[in-house]
# Entry
Amino acid sequence: MGDFNSALHGDDSLFGPSSQLIGMREFYECVQTTELIDVKGHGIHYTWNQKPKEGVGLLRKIDRVMSNIKCLELFPDAYVIYHPYRVSDHTPCILKLPNSSKSYQPKPFKFDNFITSKPKFKVCVEGEWAKRIEGYAMFSVTSKLKNLKPGLRKILFQQGNLHNKVVEL
# Structure
């Protein structure tokens, strides 16, 4: 988080050059390579301003809070507040990490191969995969896999207690 000294997207500048600058392109490539995304934010969009003595000023979003997917999984309710300018020409960026209401560790997910032969399995996977999830491709894939867990657990639960069934057989 902080001042990256470069806009990331074309709409991150107001009253500036409309063409993509070398610094913007390099910053974009860096963000793509490291698979970072902006943490959802509230408040002011343009985080830096240049106020000339006369004429129209320049506004840019060059201060950001970014995260990788693992961090967003650990802190799904994280958000940033971009406060109004005060003393500096940069806006303060405050990262909030709300306490999770879950104080337990989720059970690890174990995939049982036999459920692939169940009729509801294909329906469950197709339904989840058809959903559109915004973001980078890997974020979309991991989100869909995460969203599949409850449906697959339900299919497994409907089979009954497998250990008892083995003992009975």
